[in-house]
Amino acid sequence: MSQAPLLEIKHLTTKFSTEQGIVKAVDGVSLHIDPEETVGIVGESGCGKSVTAESILRLFDEKTTEYGGQILFEGRDLLQLSEEEMRKVRGNRISIIFQDPMSSLNPVYTIGDQIMEAIRLHQRTSRRQAREKALELLRLTGISDPERRLRSYPHELSGGMRQRVMIALALSCEPRLLIADEPTTALDVTIQAQILELMNELKEKLQMGIMLITHDLSVVAQMCSRVIVMYLGEVVEEAEVTTLFDRPLHPYTSGLLKSVPQLDGRRKQKLYEISGAVPAMHEVEACCRFAPRCPFATELCRSKAPSLEEAEPGHRVRCWHYKDIQANGGGSDGSGLLVTA
Amino acid sequence: MGPAYSSPHEHPLLQVEHLSKTFRVRSRHGWRKEQLKAVEDVSFSIYEGETYGLVGESGSGKSTTGRTILRLTEPTGGKAFFQNEDIFSLPSRRLAFLRKKVQMIFQDPYSSLDPKKRIWSSVAEPLAIHKQGTRKERKERALELLGRVGFSSRHMDRFPHEFSGGQRQRIGIAKALALNPKLIICDEPVSALDVSIQSQILNLLMELQAERGLSYLFIAHDLSVVRHIADRIGVMYLGNLVEEAPTDELFARPLHPYTRFLLSAAPAPHPRLKRERIILQGELPSPVNPPSGCVFHTRCPHAAEPCRQVKPADREVSSGHRVQCHLYGD
Amino acid sequence: MASLEPIAVSAPPGRGRIAWRRYFSNPLLVTGTVIMSVVALLALLAPWTTSYDPYSIETLNRLQPPSGEHLFGTDQLGRDVFTRVVYGIRVSLLVGASVTAIAGAIGLLVGLASAYSPVCDHIFMRICDGLYAFPSILLAISIVAIMGPQTGNVILALTIVYIPSIARIVRSAALVVQEKTFIEGLRAQGAGVFRIMGLHMLPNVLSPLIVQVSFVFAVSILTEASLSFLGAGIPAPEPSLGNLLLDGKNVIFKAWWMTVFPGVFIILMILGLNLLGDGLRDFLDPGAGSNKRFAKRKNAVRRRRRRSD
Q: Do A65 and A95 sit in the same domain of this protein?
């Protein structure tokens, strides 16, 4: 890509001090997002995808959180900015929307009040101008009858509409980057389809980049151009979306792809299982973090941690044996892999 | 009133006829009581050893349907027969019989176990409630059940908070098996779990069904999961069962416009597959004020005059495939 | 079938040891228990720690300042103040413990019943509202005035006064527990009301109950002392910290020891019990109260989608 990336994260580490000691929720994550690109971050609970997103905006309590590495955005390292400067970035240059729209909106203020507050936080406008802008945003996000909605309270709207309001809020200052943390997980599948389509439209209209965090591989398949797979605080695979689905190299990725029932798969068959479960964050040791659950793990995997290697241009993977696994036919078609009982 | 469709040779394990449940809720303005029609005239049957999937989105009434069968909520209309016994008119004393044969698995693994009880105690509880066996025997049975779902003896004395969501769901399954039920109502059993754990739980459920001849009423909103595990599927919208068919048939030939819409809305699992998306107008109507006639007409691309006026009857279009839609009328 | 490992705490170092560690890392709890243990020990060992009779009058020894013979001096009737203070502490602890136990038990039942049945809820909560409307001292005085000043009546009055606050806490906690899925699961298994209440709801409301009860203990000691100070509590000559304050009131500048020592012990007990209560709250429920940091991680890990139909 000849363009400079919109966002570049270099070796980000985020450490929390908790009752059980220091927890490294994110451990050396590097990724980049190009302008007008949708990048998906996929993983399950405890993988650190949400923590990564919130670290970009430094949303954690800095008395108990320690950040390492660099987050480069618009020529500056966000981790080095003062709190004052960070506030100018949040909601303005980079916006974030969360999973649960009900608790993200203040129940005692109207929608209009909240959107106008967001606008006036970053732009010098009169109330009337802010109201006009708010109406425009509501129309932009496909909310019908915007004048009435401005006067409504969050609890009067359905889940889908509230998420649209969240998107309107997030876009009120036309950010360059939108971080969407599981934006449709709490929504019905029919509403999810509408919201995802809306996000695509807005991305083109406003020329933003989107960081889409989700655990749903189908959403990733339809929305993203590149995918990053995370496990226990590390990036384990990164590729273009079609490559990832056709030729997943990391056993975790291929395991995920095989274990989810597909609408075109064979019914009533025993599904592929990734054995075990995600361990607690503070129990990781200095070896491949996926080794305890990996059907291909060897002594090497259990004693030394692999680093992220570039298997082919644009396709990185963190695994000692990916070449051998691939040679033996491991992949999304399921041949050559054991089904653990 | 008899069932609205032809039944195969066996007699169904569970037969639900014209089930209705209306809640009386306080309106938003606080002074009036309104009717919320959660379930309206729903009829279906479940046979021994089969999995019946009930799909729908929020507000469809699928969870409420499941709960009325166990009389966790009292139905406001209709009948249900379990092994030929009329379960809605059972007096409370006789409910114990029902609760031994029909059990439930819940959606939220984090609140479905008593945090103060050790897991073997939670699993043995159904036996204690129905006064089966001595304390020692109950504990042994609990150990046996927990072993079947994948725990070893050193886990027995632990508390729920020491386990992950998937493991807690397994404990819930062990608990549901304690009384050797014939039918288990699974209310969104995998929705709250991580993707890689879902397959473990689904496999466990399928194994147990094969082993013990269990029947499941599998309530979910995730079509791909339901397709994988269910033999027959009923689709619900705003309290109505709008279509029912054997799984393969439903996916190959969806008849009701809502079913088609549902199928097209799910994102395709591979980047190269693009689905033909049907755009649906409008939002879900409120169940307090459901539309007249066909409950789907406000959003249906094929809506016509009769749809606004008359509620379509249940029609059997082909063997085992029912639909409630004027498009398939006489 | 693969054998599973419990994930959250793999091979915990023995549940007992974790509890000890958490206990000692909680300064409030430790201080509170130390204070109360010292005080309680003092009171329990009264016959051995004091060498005087709290009632014997020796007019020759009136109003003596603290000395080697009389640790806290003597009062206007020549009685040893230290002895009377120790016996007074006994009374305070007795009254406090009795009120706590009885109000705790009744409040627990009322709270559980209110959470379960809307009818009980209306009846009980309106009664509690009525009782709440009175300032506790006035209510206690009225009851004692009607029934006569005796230790037993003081306990009765204070119990009535403090049942509502306990019932309320239990009711709130019980309402939260009732919403949890496992309660519905129990009903689905055929469990009856009493089983659900007694075996499942009760253990789950114990934590907030225990915390509230320690505050009630503290405030009953204070109220009893106030009542006795006003002459409407424990009748003279039986020693109560409040009585002692009343005795010392008239000679407060001549014989400071008659006021200071009882006062100090009242403060000490209230302080100890409040610290204990605060410490217990943190100990029993790490996610609530001031320990917000822990709660955030707990919630972040638990965030899941909910579907309601």
A: yes
